[in-house]
C-alpha cells in the first residue's frame, strides 16, 4: 500500500475532488499526505515590459493566492479525517509540472494525485495539460481525478 501521497492542487473544483480522493485514500491506508501548490513564476519570462515593481507585486499576489489555495485544501483534507502537511512550490525557472516532479522526488512520495480539467481540442492545445505532463515525467503511480466535462 502507499506510504506517502502527494496531491497537487489549484483553486478548481477538480482539485477539490482530488483532495477528497487523496484524503480518503490516506485515511484508509494510513499514508502520509502532503498537499502541494505550484506557483508558476516562469510565466514572467513572457512579459518583457513588466516593471520590477509590478513584477514584485504580481509575484507576492501569486504567492498569497497559493497560500490561500493550500490553506483551503488542508482544511478540506483535515475535515475528511487526515492530518496533511502542505508545501508551497514557487520557481522562476521551472514550470508547474517540473516543480511538482521535484517535490515528488524530494519528499519521497509513492503516489501522486492530480485533477484533470478534461479540456479537449484547441483549448487543451493552447493551455497544455499539467496532468498529462506529470504522467510522462514522474516515475511513481499517478491517480488522475476527472472533473465534470
Automatic annotation (TrEMBL):
**UspA domain residues:** 1-146
One GO cellular component, as annotated = cytoplasm
The record's subcellular location field reads: Cytoplasm
CDD domains from the UniProt entry: USP-like
Classification via Pfam families? Usp
Q: What is its main location?
A: cytoplasm
Please indicate if the UniProt record lists Cytoplasm as a keyword: yes
Q: Which UniProt keywords apply?
A: Cytoplasm
Q: Which domain of life is it from?
A: Bacteria
Q: Which family does it belong to?
A: Belongs to the universal stress protein A family.
What's the name of the protein?
A: Universal stress protein
User: Which species does the entry assign this protein to?
Assistant: Denitromonas halophila
